[in-house]
Amino acid sequence: MRRPMQVQVNGEPRETSEGQTLAGLLEELGIEATQVAVEWNREVVRRSLLGQRRLAEGDRVEVVRFVGGG
Q1: Which H or E element spans position 38?
Q2: What tens digit of pLDDT does each residue of 45-56 get?
């Protein structure tokens, strides 16, 4: 059974399951990975690696949405 843990998402505390991946976190948040850039502990993570990066207690995640304009 996975235990809950705390991470920071865009500066706000968020509870998720121990061992959660970045892809799983985005899914929990209802965010489509193709529409965002993800920074994990100050490292930009390639979209192809989101399912391989596992979160740990206290990790900091920044999720940035792409915005078009003109």
Answers
A1: strand 36-40
A2: 999 999 999 999
